[in-house]
Design a protein that fits this description.
Rossmann fold, binds calcium ion, flavoprotein, multifunctional enzyme, phosphopantothenate--cysteine ligase activity, metal-binding
Length: about 240
């Protein structure tokens, strides 16, 4: 069964999953985007369906079709995703933010197509920060005192300021979500590829858990862990 009616560790639960990459409009025909394929989010949705959950799927731009059997909401920009996510979260048991959300959007969106004019300088695109949807979901959950598990995804690289796990641990502290699924991103790794390996960090002190294999394997591990956390936190 694909709608939460059947057996499984998430039977009777509502799971909201965001996936894909947001697109931030510059004008009616152009946008700033990113390389998220949506494959990990789609795999999460399939795993949650298989676990018996009702799945709300908030799809930003994806290279593939969302899995059948989800309640599909298409979104374009980070602001649209924020609205859809805060709404869907109200009665969700689990929220998973797998979407690649643009950190910035163009400050001004032209109503008409931006034209080049000979002899004039090239336009400068000024950006403004997008809201942090994951953080807002956690704040809304805490304010409403909802029994809800919130899971973030993070793509990290090591750099001069720290390695992947140091960055991820700092991010988990900042976002205060329950679990953070951390991907190690390098050139040509993870984005659009079919295999990955992740570390699942807990915001409540549990040891880091690793999972690897196909995106379906990783998704199954995340969904299993979500079911375990749900039954432990809200028996
Ligand atoms: N996220 C979000 N809203 C944003 C940016 C990110 O909800 N405006 C979510 C993503 O969906 C993901 C998690 O936050 O679940 C981590 O995203 P990431 O881009 O790694 O975190 P940032 O806080 O944006 O940090 P960075 O500056 O490293 O990009
Ligand atoms: Ca970001």
């Amino acid at each position: 069964p694909a709608d939460g009616a059947g057996p499984g560790p998430l039977a009777g639960k509502v799971v909201t999953i965001s996936a894909g990459g947001t697109r931030e409009a510059l004008d009616p025909v152009r946008f700033l985007g990113n390389r998220s394929s949506g494959k990990q989010g789609a795999a999460l949705a399939s795993a949650a369906l298989a676990a018996g959950a009702t799945v709300r799927f908030l799809a930003a731009h994806m290279d593939i079709e969302p899995p059948a059997g989800v309640e599909l909401v298409r979104v374009e920009s980070a602001l649209e995703l924020r609205e859809a996510a805060l709404k869907a979260a109200v009665d969700s048991d689990v929220v998973i933010m797998a979407a690649a959300v643009a950190d910035f959007r163009p400050a001004d969106v032209s109503d008409t197509k931006i034209k080049k004019v000979d002899g004039e300088e090239a336009p400068v695109v000024r950006l403004v920060r997008n809201p942090d949807i994951l953080q807002e979901l956690v704040e809304a959950r805490n304010a409403a005192d909802r029994q809800q598990l919130i899971i973030g995804f993070a793509a990290e690289t090591g750099d001069a300021h720290g390695d992947v796990l140091q960055h991820a641990t700092a991010k988990l502290k900042r976002k205060r979500c329950d679990l953070l699924v951390v991907n190690h991103v390098g050139v040509g790794k993870v984005f659009g590829q079919d295999d990955n390996s992740v570390v699942i960090l807990s915001g409540h002190g549990a040891e880091p858990q690793t999972a690897s294999g196909s995106k379906a394997d990783v998704a199954a591990a995340v969904v299993d862990r979500a079911a375990v956390e749900l039954s432990a936190a809200f028996p």
